[in-house]
Amino acid sequence: MAYSGEPILAADLLFRPEHSLIDQSLHSRLGEETTNGDGFGVGWYGEGTEPAVYKSIEPAWNDENLREIARQVRTPMLLAHVRTSTGTPVQRSNCHPFRHGRWLWMHNGVLHGFHEMRRELLLAVDPALFLDMEGSTDSEMLFYLALTFGLVDDPFAAVARAVGLVEEVGRTHGVENPVQMTVATTDGESLWVFRYSSERHSRSLFFSTEIATLRALHPEVEALQELGGDTRFVVSEPLRDLEGAWNEVPESSAGRVGPGGDEIRPFAPITPT
């Protein structure tokens, strides 16, 4: 789940919705796994130049410290993730979101054939970034490849080049469809999201309808009156069954939420030259 808008209590984002991310960690309806208990993480922006991150290898539904923190944290940008391991160890450094400088990154999906591709992908990471990698996941690898290809300057192009490299390396190892991903990344000002898979059958991803429209549709829903006009959610699964509230991000698409307005555009990998 990613939130962008006026500052709001993290508890209202993580625990209050009917089908909150914490509920999804136990009862996912659209995910590959029903239960996501291999750790979790929350990243948010507040004081200072870099975002804060809280991660644990405990299941999200069983962490009392998360509840305590969430009741006191108010933020305009929050990313939260519950994890099901796809083969790498259950350890804090492998929990999302990943952080580098002002940037946060989280990924839902898998790089098929990662074990075979890992060495070549590691060698493609900018040496200046290499020592900052902490974990062993395909998700963090994709983040550092995007950073290598210029995430800070042009997120759309950087992620396209990172995905193009993974597909190119995958082909050399006989991996037919190496990339399965939905991604959210932010610098604290704007939020970028991506939905793509090599087989054109990606995991689910939704964005919320404008709050003014939802208020007109559902004047009886008190929670909508409390949200700011610039509120945007991007989620793997809807947080509440509310007619007109959620829009599916199209297959092979990328989007941006932030200053200057929102946009959705087609997404295609850029093969390395």
Structure description:
By secondary structure, the chain is α+β, with helices and mostly antiparallel strands. It has one domain (2-266): Aminohydrolase, N-terminal nucleophile (Ntn) domain (Glutamine Phosphoribosylpyrophosphate, subunit 1, domain 1), CATH 3.60.20.10. It has helices at residues 10-14, 21-27, 64-70, 114-124, 127-130, 138-148, 155-172, 211-217, 222-226, and strands at 2-9, 40-44, 52-56, 74-82, 98-100, 103-111, 179-186, 191-197, 206-208, 232-235, 246-248, 253-257, 263-266. Strands 3-2-4-1-10-9-11 form a 7-stranded antiparallel beta sheet. Strands 5-6-7-8-12-13 form a 6-stranded antiparallel beta sheet. A hairpin with a 5-residue loop joins strand 12 and strand 13 (263-266). Helix 4 (114-124) packs parallel to helix 6 (138-148) and helix 4 crosses helix 7 (155-172). The chain is globular.
Low-pLDDT regions: none
Order of helices and strands: EHHEEHEEEHHHHEEEHHEEEE
- Please estimate the helix content: 25-40%
The CATH topology is: Glutamine Phosphoribosylpyrophosphate, subunit 1, domain 1
Task: Name the CATH superfamily assignment.
Answer: Aminohydrolase, N-terminal nucleophile (Ntn) domain
- CATH class, named Alpha Beta
Binned strand content: 25-35%
Briefly characterize the structure:
The chain has 273 residues and is of the alpha+beta class. Helix content is 27%, strand content 27%.
Secondary-structure topology with pairs:
Elements (H helix, E strand, L loop, with lengths): L1 E8 H5 L6 H7 L12 E5 L7 E5 L7 H7 L3 E9 L15 E3 L2 E9 L2 H11 L2 H4 L7 H11 L6 H18 L6 E8 L4 E7 L8 E3 L2 H7 L4 H5 L5 E4 L10 E3 L4 E5 L5 E4 L7
Antiparallel strand pairs: 1-4, 1-10, 2-3, 2-4, 5-6, 6-7, 7-8, 8-12, 9-10, 9-11, 12-13
Helix pairs in contact: 4-6, 4-7, 6-7
